[in-house]
Amino acid sequence: MGEFVDLIDKIKRYYKFTPSELKGLIISVLVVAFIISFKDWGPGAAIDIKLGLGNFLSAVLIVTLTFIVRESAHRIAGLGVGFKAEYKMWTFGLLIGIALAFVSNGSIWFLVPGGVIFHHLAGHRLGHFRYGLTYFGTGMVAATAPIANMLLAVFFKVISAFTFNPLIEKIILLNIAFAVFTMLPIPPCDGNKLFFGSRMVYAFVFCSVIAGAFLLLSDLSAWVAVIGSLLIGFICWLIYYIVWERKLWGGPFSDWK
Question: Hey, where are the domains in the chain?
Answer without folding.
Answer: 2-197
